[in-house]
Amino acid sequence: MRTLVLKGKEAIEKGAELIASGEVVAFPTETVYGLGADAFNEEAVKKIFAAKGRPSDNPLIVHIADISALDGLAEDVSEAAKSVISAFMPGPITVIMKKSEKVPLSVTAGLDTVGIRMPSHVVAREFIKACGTPIAAPSANRSTHISPTSAEHVFEDMDGRIPLIIDGGDCEVGIESTIIDMSTDVPTILRPGAVTSEMLAEVLGAVKTFSGKVVVAKAPGMKYKHYAPSCETVVAKDVGSAVKAYDDAEEKGLKPVIIARSSTAEKLGGRTHIDLGSSDAEVCRNIYAALHRAEKIAGFIVCEHFGEKGVCGSVMNRVMKSAGGKIV
Ligand code: AMP
Ligand code: MG
What we know:
- This protein is an alpha/beta fold.
- The protein contains 11 helices and 16 strands.
């Protein structure tokens, strides 16, 4: 299969045509690129799992362009859920609610709940609108690999496996949506993201962040290896240990690279590094692109620990998985 990469109106028209004919299409959102199919077409949904090589017991998020689409998808929407929706949608959040009968179990991996997201990205919204149906989509990477934040990243993983990538440039947020489960008595964050627990607590009073044993996989990365570069990756707790890990790797003949924010990058004494920028938003926006580049130019990746405050906590949630939990 030849994979087209298109931009603008032509891309959206072609994308909507392919979705109507039961195909999958990669599209940009403000978080990461998604791999979408008509959420009501089970055969099309199966193609997402096939293209990604993703286990079918990992549910997909259903993307909508307009809040009115919620009616046919979710049931028993609580007042608390409505307040989260009105505060953060459209935006980088997925809300888990009781699913309506119309949503196929292949989308929700057999769960009686469905994750709904309304992206703020203009191209994503135009695409979903043009499709005229909710779009089920996970991230557009091969299962376990780094999530894509550009059309090039998608192409690297999906060339020959899908018919179309809609190119909408680089993703603004850079990590996947926050997932909050509003189907339970106590709202629970299943995956942290740019909408932080602090922001949610302001609307809900209190939220629970996920902790404890995994019984059924509810959020990505809990059960499966995720966000993994193709070479060994470690997280360095400070500049000193980053430099040491780098030098040790070099001595072993590995080609190391350090991923760091600007203020740290200045202290690396000319060692090969990727500078993410200064602000927390830049660190978040650029982290996946940096991991993509790092695995191409290096054989060993050292990533700075960015702390747990605000969005940095969400970035570290991903980076710790990339590193398989290894801190030096
Ligand atoms: P992704 O893995 O982006 O690449 O996005 C899909 C993720 O959303 C899944 O891995 C799930 O963990 C999460 N998700 C979607 N629907 C549900 C649901 N009904 N309950 C819990 N998590 C969900
Ligand atoms: Mg993913």
